[in-house]
Amino acid sequence: MSFGFRLSVIFVMFAVHAFAVFWTTMALVGEKPRWRWYAVYYAEYCAVMWGVLLFMVFFDAEEEIWCEPLGFFVVALIFSAMLRARLRVPLANAFGAAVLGHFLIYTIFDFLTEAAMYYSPAFDGKYLLVATSIVLPYCLTLVFSGGIVFVLNKSDFSQYFSHLFQGHVRTAVSLAVLLLLMNLKLLLDQFFPGATTDFSYGLFCFVLIVCALFCIQFGAMYAASRDKVKAQEETIAQQQAHMALLEELQGEIRAFRHDFTNLLSGMALSAQEGDVEAIQEFMRRTSGYFDEKLGSEIRQMEGLSNILIYPVRSLISTKLNLMRQRHIQVALEIMNPVTGVRMPTEDLLRCQGILLDNAIEAASKEAGKIRVVLLQETGELYIAVANNYDEQPDLGKLTKSGYTTKGTGHGTGLSSYRRLVSRCPNCMTRTYIKDDYLVQELRIPV
Fold first, then answer.
1. Which residues pair with 383 in a beta bridge?
2. Cα separation of 249 and 244, whole Å?
3. How far is it between the farthest Cα atoms of the chain?
């Protein structure tokens, strides 16, 4: 066979294998494949795999079975970096999906190749031998990958899969298991050298893939259920805080009614005597008393009623109650109904919680003041949280991970906040100081 034919076969093999991995990985992260991204991935795949082949040839490492898994590891790492940069997929999630995609396609292709070499009859024609032992396994690999993608999309596997990478311990365990799966063939060759490709071997590969996917699916669904229970517990706690706020407002209304009745009784004599100055003074004092006792609470309740995302409303109610306990003066401004944004609700809650917690901790200890603004306009939701302070923060250091004015053990909130914002396309954040207030703004597309 000519050199050009062999070279073209290798390029076709790489193209089919790369597309199968690319297709499967995109389904695992819940994104639709695009040809432009595939072209970039294919170029990167070819560069790495050609580098592995040249290394094996020049350094006489054809027998080194670790070379190919190492190449797949590098490809998965670069591919995950591309997903992180282009789709804002978390790096651990993208890397885990790329590793799992390589495991599935590599296992299927390895079995099909071995089966084709073991069962195909001896042909005199070399081209026919290439078609049955090389081209056919790659084509069948593409067919099987299409079936896997169909099942992943129908079962919404990506929504569960992402829960495996929430938290450092969960992420470390998930990546360790997935890396072990990707190198399982290497381990099997070490412990069972010379295994023949027959029906038992094929059944073993099939059961291996099914068991691996089942275990991963079970782990992902279990993690998702744990996160859902935790979110429900937080929502219940926020609802309880919201109810406490309503009960407190109701108690203040009763007290105001009692006091107002007494004031009217004392004013009756002045009215009978026609004392206009006393009546005017009564009206002034009553208006100030109303604003002091109930005005701010009623305005806060009116603002909260404009938040139609109930988890966000509950979160802000909880933080308002905390501010009240710490005797922090708060001004809540929510002009228009807040209906929803492109950012996931969980990420929105975490961002809002971080901004409010930082403001509560950084507010002046003597006379703390916080202002919260939510303004939904055409195309975006504008969020601003401003607080006064005792010590002016260094805006230059504020953007660095770990910086804090709260002491040892703090400073991770803002780094998590920036990471969450970077995951949402077209989100913008800004931090500045104005009129002795630290202002943090967040703009989220609607």
1. 374, 442
2. 9
3. 124
Q: Tell me the residue length of the chain.
A: 446
Residue 441 in 3-state DSSP?
A: strand
Element (H, E) at 428: strand 428-434
Helices assigned H by DSSP within 120-191: 126-130, 136-154, 157-161, 168-182, 184-191
Task: Find where tokens 């939510």 sit.
Answer: 374
Alpha carbon distance, N-terminus to C-terminus of the chain: 59
Q: Pairing relation of β-strands 329-334 and 380-387?
A: unpaired
Distance CA 205, CA 185 (A): 10
Residue 108 to residue 143: CA distance in whole angstroms: 11
Per-residue pLDDT of 254-285, as tens digits, reads 776 666 676 666 666 666 666 667 666 766 66
Of the pLDDT bands very low, low, confident and very high (cuts 50, 70, 90), residue 386 is: very high
Residues 337, 306 contacting (CB under 8 angstroms) = yes
Distance CA 331, CA 317 (A): 13
Query: Do 353 and 322 form a contact (C-beta atoms < 8 A)?
Result: no
Listed in order, strand segments (DSSP E) in 255-389 are: 329-334, 369-377, 380-387
Task: Report which of 97, 91, 11 is spatially closest to residue 49, judged by C-alpha positions.
Answer: 11
| pTM of structure | 0.58
CA pair distance 309, 205, nearest whole angstrom: 47
The C-alpha angle 16, 22, 24, rounded to 5 degrees, equals 105
